[in-house]
Design a protein that fits this description.
The complex is a heterotrimer of chains A (90), B (374) and C (387). With 90 residues, chain A is an alpha+beta fold. Chain A has 1 helix and 5 strands. A 5-stranded antiparallel beta sheet of chain A has the order 3-2-1-4-5, with no helix packed on it. In chain A, strand 4 and strand 5 form a beta hairpin. Chain B has a 5-stranded parallel beta sheet with strand order 2-1-7-8-9. In chain B, helix 2 links the parallel strand 1 and strand 2. In chain B, helix 7 packs across helix 12. Classes of the chains: A alpha+beta (90), B alpha/beta (374), C alpha+beta (387). Chains B and C meet through helix 1, helix 2, helix 5, helix 8 and strand 12 of B and strand 1, helix 1, helix 2, helix 10 and strand 15 of C. Strand 3 of chain A pairs antiparallel with strand 10 of chain C.
């Protein structure tokens, strides 16, 4: 199924430049970063982990855009529900 | 958990569901296939179908790498594992999958040295620590997993670990989608594209689906709101009369994929002329094998294997389920002869298969459950 | 081979069939084809209720997982030979009267690798497992036996470490180890040390034993910490986390609960192998009720969640060694929760769900996302699902 889980890079190992220490909700593992394009990640970057490899760096601006859409549709829905409630009260 | 919990919010799901419902034309049926078994698992695990209108149906496609491995290949791997000089390593997913004569667990019980690993690199480490044994990694997975196998083979070569080899069963998703699209009895309105495969191959390989088959496809993430949003995007395309490849999972999937990962695959592996998919039959150019240059790490060349095909029982209707022609419970053997304990066909083999997901997570009628959970 | 054919396109040369799969189809061939979903589900239900049969020719690890395979083995092999009214209940302990005294009796074997792990060792498990089986039966644990199977070459220092843990665990639980046995097997015939413990207790106040619609379901603390700790401690996954086993003796906690609302306690189970999901399924099945669980309400340590996400497993199926599932009347849920939380071992207790009448025998989950699904018995151990 290709289980991929986001993890936060906490450390690049100086003795093993192909490995990064990654944290997933308090669980840590050394992850191979040899497949990442555009160079090694920095601590604080988020990567997608699959079978011990970082498959891609998580694009924060893309994540923000996706969440903003979800927020906007949630807001529109909330407004609609509010309007519906008010109309019932009237 | 960041990048996870944000996409599991029930309030936003209700809003998205309302918007999805408003996009559906009354009286029209919408059938979408999620290609990837990971999506199937997410859909059932979170109960996503509860948010979809009755006229939107999700068909669970062939994208579970464990499920589509033919029984004969499992037999071959077990044949290798039985050799006293061999340690066979594979992912936990494979352990219970039965071949013609039992599973890896059965082989282990009978004395074979079979080990579960989290990463192919862990298998390489076993080879490093056991120089006197031959370590075979039973490699499975789509393009998502193939780069990890490739990197491990490259590392084995660099480290001179000649006791490490790969029994390659990597499959490629596009030929399977083509096979499904070419099937005459198929009626789909669009696809949810496999997000993690696409992190490697990018979105361009799907262009033929929109161009030649006039079906929209949205590359989707794996959290429940990713799935709902992707269904939403498909409905918007249909409403606007568009047929395009869109990427809902931009935070992980670059449009052009991961060139470095593709390069690693290409360096170490090549397409097989054809490969058998359980439930779908033989599909041309749909799997990878180790290249000649890395023959020293190719278990298929190192060990003789029986290579005998094992047919699924005729009663098994996985092919129809995979194409969405039958619902899992409409199959003749579903739930009686074919259960997660004794999976007869591909769809029951892993919890990502359509039948196993339905059996494990959805084995009830919706109205009774709605009543109980209200 | 050009084009992408579907099903049987002429590559049948040298094909054989899988005997076991053909046999399974033949065995069910009489089942008439039905089309309506409900009928199919009923047919499955009947198939599931049929007398279990061990299909395997040899024991596999799944038979020890606590899931469906274990259940099948117990029913088809052990109950088949040993069956009697006390055993047939398959409760955590057998309860009976001797000369007017109500007693509870149980046994437990501990096998764990590694023998020592964060939060405890095999000695703690051996004592606490037996104490908890007695406690959830409403008994005050009194006396334990301890049988040791040791492998030739096992370090005496390790044995001392284990016995010291057992003494401390027994003291904490207020029990004495009063009889024992030692066997040594040749090197390679065992994995260091196995311990079998049995225990007797005096039944103080047993749960009513009747679970009804409207009852509340509680867990006494966060789930899955023992199982994940052991997986990590084995080292082959290369994962690290600040986690410790939850192994603990629950008799004090349960006595406090019984003091607070003993008359309202319907059922208690020790959630060990197979995790909370397995216990809930057993309770739903035995009492013919539905159990509806709120995923949001189930307490899970963040690192247990992180490891579960990484490995693709569900914490609901992961073993605990110091957590109980408690069913109380709906009206007593608040009292029971307060009593549990007032005890140090129950600080993380929570009401996780409720009992309904339909669909009988099923555990349903209201997911945090707002959907619904069932929580079934697993075949074997939760396996990493990663590729």
């Amino acid at each position: 199924m290709c289980l991929g889980i986001p993890g936060e890079v906490v450390e690049i190992q100086s003795d093993r430049p192909d490995l990064a220490r990654v944290d997933v909700s308090g669980v840590r593992r050394s992850i191979n970063i040899g497949l990442l394009e555009d160079g090694p990640p920095a601590p604080g970057d988020w990567v997608l982990i699959h079978v011990g490899f970082a498959l891609s760096k998580i694009d924060e601006s893309e994540a923000r855009a996706a969440l903003e859409f979800l927020e906007s549709i949630g807001q529109a829905y909330a407004d609609e529900i509010d309007a519906l409630r008010e109309s019932r009260i009237d | 958990m960041r990048h996870v919990d944000e996409y599991r919010d029930a309030g936003k799901a209700r809003a998205l569901a309302a918007s999805i419902a408003s996009l559906c034309e009354p009286g029209r049926e919408y059938t979408f296939m999620e290609v990837c078994g990971g999506h199937t698992h997410t859909i059932y695990k979170h109960g996503i179908e509860d948010y979809l209108p009755d006229n939107v149906t999700l068909v669970h496609g062939p994208g579970c790498p464990v499920c589509v491995i033919p029984m004969g290949r499992v037999d071959d791997a077990i044949h290798i594992a039985r050799r006293p000089d061999v340690i066979l390593a594979t992912f936990g997913d494979m352990m219970r999958v039965p071949g013609g004569h039992g599973s890896f667990f059965d082989a282990k019980a009978a004395g074979a040295d079979v080990r579960m690993v989290y990463s192919p690199l862990d298998a390489l480490r076993i080879a490093e620590r056991n120089p006197g044994r031959r370590v075979v990694f039973m490699a499975i997975g789509f393009e998502t997993t193939a780069p990890s196998t490739a990197m491990t083979v490259l590392r084995a070569r660099a480290a001179g670990l000649d006791n490490f080899s790969v029994f390659a069963n990597h499959v490629t998703i596009i030929p399977a989608i083509k096979a499904i699209l070419d099937s005459p009895d198929l009626r789909l309105d669009g696809f949810l594209g496999p997000g993690h495969v696409s992190a490697v191959i990018g979105c361009r390989p799907y262009e033929f689906i929109a161009r030649d088959h006039r079906k929209p496809i949205v590359v989707a993430g794996f959290e429940p709101l990713d799935i709902l949003r992707s269904v939403h995007m498909l409905l918007v395309q249909l409403r606007e009369g568009r047929c395009e490849v869109e990427n809902q999972y931009g935070r992980v999937v670059p449009w052009d994929g991961n060139a470095k990962a593709l390069q690693a695959i290409n360096e170490t592996m090549e397409l097989r002329p054809y490969f058998e998919w359980r439930g779908l039959g033989f599909i041309s150019h749909s799997a990878l094998r180790v290249r000649d240059g890395y023959a020293a790490h190719d278990a298929e060349r190192i060990f003789d294997v029986p290579g005998v095909r094992v047919a699924d029982p005729k009663a098994c209707q996985c092919g129809e389920v995979l194409k969405g022609v039958l619902k899992p419970w409409e199959c003749k053997v579903f739930g009686t002869a074919c259960t997660p304990e004794t999976p007869i066909g591909t769809c029951m083999v892993s919890s990502e298969g359509a039948c196993a997901a339905y059996y494990n997570f959805g084995r009830f009628t919706r109205d009774r459950v709605r009543e109980a959970t209200r | 081979m050009t084009g992408a054919g579907l099903n049987g396109n002429g590559m049948d040369e040298g094909v054989r069939t899988a005997g076991w799969a053909e046999a399974a189809v033949a065995e069910h061939a009489h089942a008439a084809p039905v089309s309506r979903e409900e009928q199919v589900l009923e047919r499955i239900d009947r198939a599931r209720r049929r007398k279990p049969r061990v299909r395997e020719e040899a024991i596999t690890l799944a038979h020890g997982s606590g899931g469906k395979a274990t259940r099948t083995l117990i029913e088809a092999v052990f109950l088949e030979e040993f069956g009697n009214p006390l055993l047939d209940r398959l409760d955590d302990s057998a309860r009976f009267a001797v000369d007017g005294a109500r007693l509870a009796f149980t046994t437990d074997s501990s096998v764990v690798a590694p023998l020592f792990f964060p939060g405890g060792d095999i000695g703690d498990l051996a004592v606490n497992g037996t104490v908890n089986d007695l406690a959830v039966s409403g008994a005050t644990p009194l006396y334990l036996s301890a049988g040791f199977i040791l492998e030739e070459g096992f370090p005496v220092a390790d044995l001392r470490r284990i016995t010291a843990s057992m003494r401390r665990a027994a003291e904490a639980a207020g029990v004495s180890i009063v009889t024992g046995d030692t066997k040594v097997v040749e090197r390679g015939k065992a994995d260091g040390c196995y311990i079998s413990t049995s225990g007797v207790g005096a039944v103080r106040r047993a749960p009513s034993g009747s679970v009804r619609p409207g009852d509340a379901v509680l867990v006494t603390g966060p789930i899955g910490e023992h199982g994940i700790t052991i997986m990590l401690a084995r080292g082959d996954l290369d994962l690290e986390a600040d986690l410790a086993s939850d192994t603990a003796a629950l008799n004090g906690l349960i006595a406090a609960l019984m003091d607070a609302c003993g008359g309202e306690v319907r059922r208690m189970r020790d959630a060990t192998r197979g995790g909370v999901a397995t216990v809930l399924n057993e309770v739903a099945g035995e009492h013919g009720v539905a159990i509806v669980v709120d995923e949001d309400a189930v307490p899970v340590h963040p690192a247990v969640r992180g490891a579960s996400e990484l490995l693709g497993i569900d914490p609901m199926y992961v073993a605990c060694e110091g957590r109980a599932v408690v069913v109380v009347s709906g009206g007593a849920a608040g009292t029971a929760l307060a009593a549990l939380r007032a005890h140090p071992l129950g600080a993380g207790a929570a009401v996780i769900g409720h009992v309904k009448d339909d669909p009988p025998g099923l555990v349903l989950l209201r997911t945090a996302f707002g959907g619904t699904r069932i929580v079934d018995l697993m075949v074997g151990d939760p396996l990493p699902r990663i590729c």
